[in-house]
Amino acid sequence: MNTWLIGVDIEVSDLEFPAYFLIQAESLALAEAGVVYMGRTWWQECLEESDGCRWAYRSGKSVWFNSITLLDDVESSILQGLKFLDAWVVTGDLTSPRVQNQFNEHWDEFTR
């Protein structure tokens, strides 16, 4: 399983801030599919998706997927050991990725 550092920008009420988290997946394609799934479901009722990397929601909220960086084993171990980034595991396939955290909580349950 590979680990990627994911960067997104989140906008809420005209305030934009970066967020970072870790994704573990077997391939880059599956990691990206997981991030796209997360972006589509960050909040309820996605109003608009642009190019698979930006999702707009009600009340001026949006999520922008802006970076994905493959980590080597040392980088992954350090970032996971510090425990300040959420870590998500993506399984399944490209059309229906399954995203859950280290406590087996599914992304859909976590964000609702």
From TrEMBL:
Name under which the protein is recorded: DUF4376 domain-containing protein
Species the sequence originates in: Citrobacter braakii
Lineage, top ranks: Bacteria, Pseudomonadati, Pseudomonadota, Gammaproteobacteria, Enterobacterales
